[in-house]
Design the sequence.
RNA sequence: GGAGGGCUGGCUGAGCGGCCGAAAGCGACGGUCUUGAAAACCGUUAGGGCGGUGUCCCCGUCCUCAAGGGUUCGAAUCCCUUGCCCUCCGCCA
C-alpha cells in the first residue's frame, strides 16, 4: 500500500511512477478525490460524536427536567452520529479499494517498460563451449537426461504419485539439494542473517497482507477445509512474523534466512517449461529477508544482491544480473534485480534469484514499524532475495556436465557432500 | 472429536454501564545521589486518523481494551456471532 501522505503531497511523483509501470494513472486522481471526501465525512462524524459525548457526560450529572431535555437531544444525536459514521466508513472503504490498486513508487533509475525491457547490468563467468571441449558432435544433455543418468531425478514417478510438475529427487539429487540449501543458509548466517525454518501454511490475513492475494491469487494453493494458504515462498511467513510490531532497527536491520518448501499452482503457464524440474508445483528455497529503515533500504538491496552473487559464484555458475523493468516489478517492489544463469540445453538465461526492495509498501499493509532514534514510529522497509532453490540444480547439472554424463561438483559444495567431487551415472539398476 | 477457562498498554495484572485510554507492579528511558556502579528516591513511558497553530515543541478532536454486530443518551464493562489462545479427556501420530 502506498503512503497517502505522499499521494497528497506529491501526486505527480505517483503519476510518474504509474506511467513508468504502464499502470492506470487516473487511479491517482480518483484516490485524491476519495481522500477529500473521506476527510470531510470524518470531520462531520467527529464533530457530532464530540457533541454526543459531551451531552452524554451531562446526562450523568443532570436531574429532573434538565435531564429529560438532555436525553431527548442525545437521542436524536445518536441517530445522526450513526449515520455520519456509516458515511465516513463507506468513504474509507472506497478510498482503500482505489489506493490498493496503486503500485509501489518505482525508484529512480528503474528502466521503463515491460517484461522484455530489462537492462543487463553485468555478466559474470563464461558459458562453456562444449563443442570446443568435447568436439563438434557432442550433444549437450539437458538437466533431466543428466538427472536420470545419475539416478537423481524421477519425474515419471512424480507424476504417478502427484501429477504433472511433481518429481522425486533421489540419491545424489536429494543430497545435492540438501548440500546446496545448507551451503546457502550457512553463507547467509555468516553474513549475519538469522536462520529460520518457517511455517508453510498461513492464515488469510497474512497472505493478503503480503500482497500475494492480488494479481497472483491464481498461483496460490488454498486449503479450503481450514481456510489457510500454502506459501509460494517463505517471504510470506517472514514478512508476517513481525506484522503489527514496532521494531528497534536503530542499531542494525533484522535479517533472516528462511528455509521452506514452496508451493505454486503454475496456473497460466500450461505448456511452459514442462520438461524436468524447471517449473514445478513444489520446491525448496532459502530466502533472505530484511527489515530495515527506509533510509537504508537501497544499500541493503545491494547487499542482498551481492550475497546472491556470492552464492552463484560458490556453485560456479555463469550468470547475468538484470535490472527488471518497471512494468514487470509486481505491485510491491520498487526495484528488482534478477540473476539468471546460463542454460546450455536451451541456449538462454534462466532466472535463479530475484531480489526485491519493497520499501515501505509491504510493511505498511502489515503494520510493521520501527522506533526511530528520536522516539517516533514510522513504517519500516522490507526486502527479500533468493539464496538458493531447487531450480538451481537444473543449471548446476547442465553447466557442470562432462562428456560421459558425469557431473562436476563445485568445490564449495563438496564439504556438504562428504567430499564428493563428481556425480557419476548409475547403471540401470540404480533407477529401478 | 468432547468438556471447561481465557483474550486489557513492552510484560504481569486490576477494572460498580457514566472524567477509564484504563489502577498497580515489572521493565525501559531521563534525573538526583555516587569517584564510578548498584541500591534508594523523583519524573517520563500505548498506537493511530483528522484538524490547527507550529513546523525540530505543542494544542484540539476522534478511533482502538481480539474482530464484527447489537442493547443504551452513554459500552473495556451487558447480549449475539466469529476468530485465536490455554487446560483436561478421548483419538491419531
Sequence:
Amino acid at each position: 500500500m502506498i503512503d497517502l501522505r505522499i499521494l497528497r503531497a506529491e501526486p505527480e511523483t505517483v503519476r510518474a511512477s504509474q506511467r513508468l509501470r504502464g499502470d492506470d494513472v487516473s487511479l491517482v486522481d480518483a484516490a485524491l478525490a476519495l481522500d477529500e471526501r473521506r476527510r470531510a465525512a470524518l470531520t462531520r462524524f467527529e464533530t457530532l460524536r464530540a457533541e454526543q459525548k459531551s451531552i452524554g457526560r451531562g446526562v450523568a450529572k443532570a436531574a429532573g427536567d434538565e435531564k429529560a431535555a438532555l436525553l431527548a437531544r442525545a437521542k436524536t444525536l445518536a441517530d445522526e452520529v450513526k449515520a455520519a459514521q456509516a458515511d465516513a466508513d463507506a468513504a474509507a472503504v472506497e478510498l482503500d479499494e482505489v489506493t490498493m490498486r496503486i503500485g509501489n513508487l518505482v525508484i529512480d533509475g528503474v528502466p521503463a517498460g515491460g517484461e522484455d525491457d530489462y537492462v543487463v547490468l553485468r555478466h559474470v563467468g563464461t558459458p562453456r563451449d562444449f563443442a570446443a571441449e568435447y568436439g563438434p558432435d557432442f550433444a549437450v544433455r539437458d538437466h533431466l537426461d543428466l538427472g536420470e543418468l545419475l539416478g537423481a531425478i524421477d519425474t515419471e514417478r512424480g507424476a504417478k504419485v502427484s501429477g504433472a510438475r511433481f518429481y522425486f529427487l533421489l540419491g545424489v539429487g536429494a543430497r545435492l539439494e540438501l548440500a546446496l540449501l545448507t551451503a546457502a543458509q550457512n553463507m547467509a548466517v555468516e553474513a549475519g542473517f538469522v536462520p529460520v525454518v518457517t511455517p508453510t501454511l498461513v492464515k488469510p490475513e497474512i497472505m493478503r497482507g503480503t500482497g500475494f492475494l492480488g494479481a497472483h491469487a491464481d498461483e496460490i494453493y488454498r486449503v479450503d477445509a481450514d481456510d489457510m494458504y500454502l506459501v509460494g515462498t517463505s517471504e510470506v511467513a517472514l514478512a508476517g512474523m513481525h506484522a503489527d510490531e514496532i521494531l528497534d532497527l536503530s542499531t542494525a536491520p533484522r535479517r533472516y534466512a528462511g528455509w521452506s518448501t514452496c508451493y505454486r499452482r503454475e496456473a497460466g503457464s500450461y505448456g511452459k517449461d514442462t520438461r524436468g524440474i524447471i517449473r514445478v508445483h513444489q520446491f525448496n528455497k532459502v530466502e533472505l529477508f530484511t527489515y530495515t529503515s527506509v533510509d537504508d533500504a537501497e544499500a541493503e538491496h545491494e547487499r542482498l544482491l551481492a550475497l546472491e552473487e556470492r552464492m552463484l559464484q560458490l556453485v560456479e555458475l555463469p550468470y547475468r544480473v538484470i535490472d527488471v523493468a518497471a512494468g514487470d516489478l509486481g505491485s510491491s517492489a520498487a526495484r528488482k534485480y534478477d540473476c539468471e544463469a546460463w542454460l546450455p540445453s536451451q541456449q538462454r538465461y534462466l532466472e535463479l534469484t530475484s531480489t526485491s526492495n519493497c520499501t515501505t509498501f509491504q510493511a505498511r499493509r502489515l503494520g510493521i514499524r520501527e522506533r526511530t532514534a528520536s522516539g517516533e514510529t514510522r513504517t519500516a522497509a522490507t526486502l527479500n532475495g533468493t539464496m538458493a532453490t531447487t531450480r538451481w540444480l537444473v543449471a548446476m547439472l547442465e553447466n557442470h556436465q562432462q562428456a560421459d554424463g558425469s557431473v562436476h561438483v563445485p568445490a564449495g559444495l563438496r564439504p556438504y557432500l562428504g567430499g564428493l567431487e563428481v556425480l557419476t551415472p548409475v547403471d540401470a539398476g540404480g533407477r529401478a
Residues 38-39, 42-43, 45-47, 49-50, 52-53, 55-61, 70-75, 77-78, 203, 246, 367, 369, 374-375, 377 of chain A lie near RNA strand B (CB under 10 Å from a C1'). The CA atoms of residues 235 and 389 of chain A lie 13 Å apart.
